[in-house]
Amino acid sequence: MTDTTLAYYTACWKDLVRRYESADVTELQAFLAASFPPGASLLELGCGSGRDAAFMLASGFDVTASDAVQEMIDAAAACHAALAGRLCRLCLPRDLTPSLGPFDGVYAVATLMHLTRPDIEDVFSRIRHILVPEGRLFFSVPMQRDDVQADECDAKGRRFTAMTRTAWTGLCRDSGFDIITCTVSSDGLGRESFTWLNCLAVTRRK
């Protein structure tokens, strides 16, 4: 993840936590819960305020939640006491190593778009190597934003790699996954110009 992106989240974590906790994610969380077998062991990449990790834990999943920003990890622990002992700091792609796994599933909500395209490819490949056979991957990324500049950053310095649905699913397939389903949803914060691509994939049988 780029230094300017990490710097933004490190500086603005308080405001971001309030936004994350206020977002309407009913549809997203229903999709998440239906994406993995009951009781599955899961790794979340980019847990933010811990909102989705707490939901998945309450839904019966064995969740490990990670983020690259220590302030976010601390905030998640403060917001959701149930996540105690389940939070860790991971920088993508560097820290995604086989020693983390195996997991039944990995999910990343509003995270992967902050990486460069080569790092996205690397992360997909690394995820496959920490999953059990026929393990599952769910990721949600923006399909459309109106605030990204020519350098693929917004005015706050956050990187947003813009790719089409075909490009995202293509990178995923090239890394050894088969796509189970792929849908587009509206923005949980009510921003009309933002739409989200939600993909569920499974490791390809050898």
Outline of the structure:
The chain has 206 residues and is an alpha/beta fold.
What does this structure look like?
The protein is an alpha/beta fold. The chain has a single domain (3-203), classed as 3-Layer(aba) Sandwich (Rossmann fold), CATH 3.40.50.150. It has 6 helices and 7 strands, in the order H-H-E-H-E-H-E-E-H-E-H-E-E. Strands 3-2-1-4-5-7-6 form a 7-stranded mixed sheet, sandwiched between helices. The chain is globular.
Topology:
Blueprint: H1 3-22, H2 26-35, E1 41-45, H3 51-58, E2 62-67, H4 70-79, E3 87-89, E4 103-109, H5 117-129, E5 131-144, H6 165-174, E6 177-186, E7 195-203
Parallel strand pairs: 1-2, 1-4, 2-3, 4-5
Antiparallel strand pairs: 5-7, 6-7
Helix pairs in contact: 1-4
Distinctive features:
206 residues, alpha/beta, Rossmann fold, seven-stranded mixed β-sheet, 7 strands
